[in-house]
Write a structure and sequence with these properties.
Length: 337
């Protein structure tokens, strides 16, 4: 299949592809998404093939405007509107009861649907022009780090999808916060750009799903089906080095691995210097770390690193989203100081 590379000025063409049942990758403020008409099971099924995604992992339905919410969800609780008022458009996904018009391909047979209104103007205009809700996972090959630039999407998806819209780099850099409000208390299923304490300003009883902070065993059936899969895994073996003052330990580990003849990468903060063969600094805040992390992980593979040590040393609210992605990339290889 030939994959068109479209400019943000060619959204009508992209919208036509979606209307006709095709797949279009588009920028959002979190990560690039791979969109299809959410009302067509046949179109949505193509997403799973293109990504190599397990079919029991449901997709997020993207809307251009909150006015469309009740076209996809039913029995919407009042708190949903309060959350939308505060955080939408933006990096928050709400799990709601689904309307029967949403095909099983989107929700993997669940009775709920995940809904998000992205903040990126290109994403919203594309959805509006398509005239349908747009189902979209991250636009990476399943298991790879999510794409935060058009180039990442080109690297993974060329030849597998109809078109890629070339926007800029994703500002947030990690996927949206997934919040389930269908139960007794609101539960965060995936941490993201909207933090637990921000959500608690509206839902004081909101909790984190235990799978966010605990290791997931294969026999578990987490509420957020995506959480049981291996994610963000570069070819390199990633280790997280966690502690407020971990730069000495990082240097030491890197020296040992180099002496073993390995090609060693470092993902650092605060410009910490190491003797790594290839280093990628992710700034001096978790917001900057989130924006850089997936690019850093992809770059480690491009540079042919065997092993990567990633520093995690800023412990604040926003850090949970970064830590969650790091832990998954490291498949639980964590060195805590
Ligand atoms: O920021 C984002 O959310 C990006 C952009 C493109 O919007 N999308 C994204 O999609 O990260 P994806 O498919 O990579 O992740 C969707 C997550 C998965 O963990 C999935 O299991 C969960 O949302 N999910 C989807 N529908 C659900 C539902 N009905 N109940 C519980 N979890 C659901
Ligand atoms: Mg994904």
């Amino acid at each position: 299949m030939k994959t068109l590379i479209l400019k943000p000025t060619e959204l009508l063409r992209a919208a036509d592809i979606i209307k006709n049942g095709g797949l279009v990758a588009f920028p959002t403020e979190t990560v690039y998404g791979l969109g299809a008409n959410a009302l067509s099971g046949e179109a949505v099924a193509k997403i799973f093939v293109a990504k190599g995604r397990p079919s029991d992992n449901p997709l997020i339905v993207h809307l251009a405007d909150k006015a469309e919410l009740e076209n996809v969800a039913r029995d919407v609780p009042q708190v949903a509107y309060e959350l939308i008022e505060r955080f939408a458009p933006g990096p928050l996904t709400l799990v709601l009861k689904k309307r029967p018009e949403i095909p099983n391909e989107v929700t993997a047979g669940l009775d709920t649907v995940a809904v998000r209104i992205p903040a990126d103007p290109i994403a919203r205009e594309l959805i509006a022009l398509s005239g349908v809700p747009v189902a979209a996972p991250s636009s990476n090959l399943s298991g790879k780090p999510s794409p935060t630039t058009a180039q990442h999407v080109i690297d993974d998806m060329t030849g597998r999808i109809d078109a890629i819209i070339e926007g800029g780099a994703s500002r947030v850099g990690v996927e949206s916060t997934v919040l389930d409000i269908t139960g007794k208390i609101p539960v965060i299923l995936r941490p993201g750009g909207v933090t637990l304490s921000q959500i608690r300003e509206i839902c004081p009883d909101c909790e984190l799903d235990r799978h966010i902070t605990e290791r997931v065993e294969p026999q578990d059936t987490p509420k957020c089906p995506g959480m049981k899969y291996k994610h963000y895994s570069p070819e390199a073996e990633v280790y997280v080095v966690e502690g407020e003052d971990c730069s000495d330990k990082l240097s030491e580990l890197i020296k040992v691995a180099k002496n073993e003849g390995k090609k060693v990468g470092a993902i650092t903060l605060f410009g910490h210097k190491t003797e790594a063969d290839f280093a990628y600094d992710c700034g001096s805040s978790n917001e900057e770390y989130a924006a850089e992390l997936f690019d850093a992980l992809r770059e480690m593979d491009k540079q042919g690193m065997d092993v990567v040590y990633a520093e995690y040393s800023i412990f604040d609210d926003y850090g949970l989203a970064v830590k969650n992605r790091l832990y998954k990339a490291a498949a639980n290889r964590i060195i805590t100081l």
